[in-house]
Write a structure and sequence with these properties.
The chain is of the alpha+beta class. About 25% of the residues lie in helices and about 30% in strands. The protein has a single domain (about 5-125), classed as RutC-like (60s Ribosomal Protein L30, Chain: A, 2-Layer Sandwich), CATH 3.30.1330.40. The mean pLDDT is about 95. This is Enamine deaminase RidA (YjgF/YER057c/UK114 family).
Amino acid sequence: MTERNSVSTGSPYEPIIGISRAVRIGSVIAVAGTAPLGPDGKTVSIGDAAGQARRCLEISRLAIEQLGGRLDDVVRTRIMLTRIEDWKAVAQVHGEFFGAIRPVNTIVQVVGFIDPQWLVETEVDAVL
């Protein structure tokens, strides 16, 4: 059986929902939907979709690195927005992280998130 490793990033939602921030099985790392939470568990960059996207991707990068991966290993990202008009600002932040890597990506608008202050959530998949 392939070894399974997981990491938590301290989100207060992880134990409530019963999730890990990221799981690695073999060479695959899947990062859960990631909200723009600071180390204190509170929403960051309220009203700023680009700032929230940056925080989401920083959290994802840390989780991938804790499981032995790097951003260069990312093959798919998903960006969920409550305001589709934020897509260009958020896409620019995505490019700061992945411009040279160029994973596949989907950007969609959603009705809302658990916390109405969240404008963005991301998901990331990597293959080492």
